[in-house]
Amino acid sequence: MQYVDSATSGTKLKSTSGWSRLGKGTDSYGFTATPGGLRIADGKTFISLDTYAIFWSSSEASSSAAWYRSISNDDAYVSRDSYDKTLDFSIRCIKNQR
């Protein structure tokens, strides 16, 4: 996993509530990221529901893997990595305004 932005971008993207322990953010960018964790490949088990916000990217890393961005309650960074597409991460839909 690599950290890809400034030392405070994760904090600025996080909502001001909903994070466990001391992980809440400032929501300076209006993104309001809330932790949703992930669902593992069995399709039933959710983990890290109050500690991670993990979002799939639309970019593939390979035919079986895609890039994702992750925000943790434990630090202020946004990280980037790729993983097999069998896990369920969050997505963020953005409506184009005309």
What is the topological layout?
Layout: E1 2-3, H1 9-13, E2 38-39, E3 46-47, E4 52-60, E5 65-72, E6 78-84
Antiparallel strand pairs: 1-6, 2-3, 4-5, 5-6
Structure description:
The chain has 98 residues and is mostly beta strands. It has one domain. It contains one helix and six strands. It has one helix at 9-13, and strands at residues 2-3, 38-39, 46-47, 52-60, 65-72, 78-84. Strand 2 and strand 3 (46-47) form a beta hairpin.
Number of domains: 1
What gross morphology would you assign? globular
Number of helices, counting only DSSP H or I runs of 4 residues or more: 1
By oligomeric state, this entry counts as: single chain
Structural class: mainly beta
**Series of secondary-structure elements, N-terminal to C-terminal:** EHEEEEE
C-alpha-based Rg, rounded: 14 Å
Give the gist of this structure.
This protein is mainly beta. It has one helix and six strands, in the order E-H-E-E-E-E-E.
Which properties best describe this structure?
6 strands, two-stranded antiparallel ribbon, mainly beta, globular, 98 residues, four-stranded antiparallel beta sheet
